[in-house]
Design goal:
Blueprint (H helix, E strand, L loop, with lengths): L3 H38 L2 E4 L2 E4 L4 E7 L1 E23 L5 E6 L6 E2 L4 E5 L2 H36 L5 H33 L2 E3 L4 E3 L9 E2 L9 E16 L3 H9 L4 E5 L6 E15 L4 E8 L11 E18 L4 E3 L2 E7 L5 E5 L1 E5 L3 E6 L6 E5 L10 E3 L36
Parallel strand pairs: 3-22
Antiparallel strand pairs: 1-2, 3-21, 4-11, 4-15, 5-7, 5-10, 6-9, 7-8, 9-11, 11-14, 12-13, 12-15, 13-14, 15-20, 16-17, 17-18, 17-21, 19-20
């Protein structure tokens, strides 16, 4: 009797604990269900640090299509080459008396670069002049004798054969005088070679021989200096053979403009013109070599330097352009989201005529001034309501309200027809 009473109390305590746990579990499940229902009925998404209801307008950035002149460039990598390179060598043997330039000097054509000892060549010239004087004296005497023999032969005082022989002697002496004159010219040339002058305008390199050394014309190690013409300067570059017809067609109409740009950015170093299209295609690479010429007024270009080349082959006049970021691609081709006056979007199929990293030329499908979405495509569908954001993306305008300068949230690059630049 006394043993059963504690057991009943213990059984009741255990039953109360089970009910408590059951009630707590039911309350937790009910709270979770209520949270799920309310969160599902009003989901929120975070956009730019703010919560925007999913049922509200879609935040987007837009840009207006515009007409512009769009240049068509062909890009390549070019190598700077000097327009002319001359290795100055002695043309006669002798001791180098003086070197009249400093390494790295700019020289003009005809400037004296060095002098070779002229004593031997001056002596040879004097000898040739003396030999000519001797032969001229003999020629004069033979001419006098010829006149005398011709008069005697006319009176039959002497045999005519003597007159003919004398006439041959005069011709022989005349030839000797002419040979003497050639020897004088040769000696004068050799003497002139002792003064070494610059063959063109350019910049001298490192001196290869010092004064006092004996130089020889036949010795390649006797080179004095290399002169490089830097103004103007040339650039060699290659283009795929597929572009050859387009280049030739444009080249026939007149000179083509070429831009040299730095390899690390789009800054233009110099502007020149295309000079030569090579007369054959390299079969190993399938490319054709071209040569452009630049004024290089400030010596921005240097032989051996690599630069980016842009060859202007055409200009599309007053075409419709939009930012490339606005162009979308789907199963049916390219399209854009056009923002209508009521701030809803419409899917519009377009034809792309030309495209680069920043700008797209639209052949068909858009008119100037129409607004296209450039950012915020994830939730867009046909007829979606949009809230047009500012250029910095910090705020979104409610539907029906447009910020000032609408359409320039992302300013169209190259849209100014006066100064197009589609490669920015």
């Amino acid at each position: 009797m006394h043993g059963e009473f504690p057991k009943q109390i213990l059984s009741k305590a255990r039953g109360g604990t089970r009910r408590t746990f059951a009630i707590a579990f039911i309350l937790i499940a009910l709270a979770a269900a209520l949270y799920y229902v309310f969160s599902a009925s009003a989901p929120q998404q975070r956009r730019g640090g703010r919560f925007i209801p999913s049922e509200g307008p879609v935040p987007v950035l837009v840009a207006a299509s515009a007409r512009a002149d769009v240049p068509v460039f062909l890009d390549a990598v070019g190598t700077i080459r000097a327009l002319n390179i001359v290795t100055v060598r002695p043309q006669v043997d002798g001791k180098l008396l003086s070197v009249n330039f400093k390494e790295g000097d700019d020289v003009k054509k005809g400037d004296v670069l060095a002098k070779i000892d002229p004593i031997i060549y001056q002596a040879q010239l004097n000898q040739a002049i003396a030999k000519k004087a001797q032969d001229e004296a003999q020629l004069a005497n033979s001419k006098i004798d010829l006149e005398r023999y011709e008069r005697l032969a006319a009176t039959a005082a002497i045999n005519k054969q003597q007159a003919d022989t004398q006439r041959a002697l005069v011709a022989q002496n005349t030839a000797l005088v002419q040979a003497d004159q050639a020897a004088i010219d040769n000696a004068q040339a050799m003497l002139g070679y002792t003064t070494i002058t610059a063959p063109l305008d350019g910049r001298t390199g490192i001196r290869m021989v010092d004064e006092g050394n004996y130089v020889r014309a036949a010795d390649t190690n006797s080179s004095i200096v290399v002169i490089t013409q830097l103004q103007p300067i040339s650039v060699l570059f290659n283009l795929p053979q597929q572009d050859l017809s387009q280049v030739n067609s444009a080249f026939e109409k007149g000179p083509l403009n070429v831009e040299a740009q730095r390899s690390d950015n789009d800054a233009v170093i110099d502007r020149g013109v295309l000079r030569v299209v090579d007369n054959q295609v390299d079969q190993t690479t399938g490319t054709v070599k071209l040569k452009a010429e630049f004024p290089n007024a400030n010596l921005q270009l240097w032989p051996g330097q690599f630069v980016n080349i842009r060859l202007l082959v055409n200009t599309l006049k007053q075409v419709v352009v939009i930012p490339t970021g606005a162009v979308q691609r789907g199963p049916n081709g390219t399209f854009v989201y056009v923002v209508k006056d009521d701030d809803t979007v419409s899917v519009r199929a377009i034809t792309v005529q030309k495209q680069d990293e920043t700008q797209t030329v639209v052949g068909k499908g858009l008119e100037p001034g129409e607004r296209v979405v450039t950012t915020g495509f994830v939730r867009l569908t046909e007829g979606s309501k949009v809230a047009i954001g500012s250029a910095d993306g910090q705020t979104a305008q409610p539907a029906g309200q447009r910020p000032q300068g609408q359409g320039n949230g992302r300013r169209q690059r190259g849209g100014n027809s006066a100064k197009p630049n589609p490669q920015q």
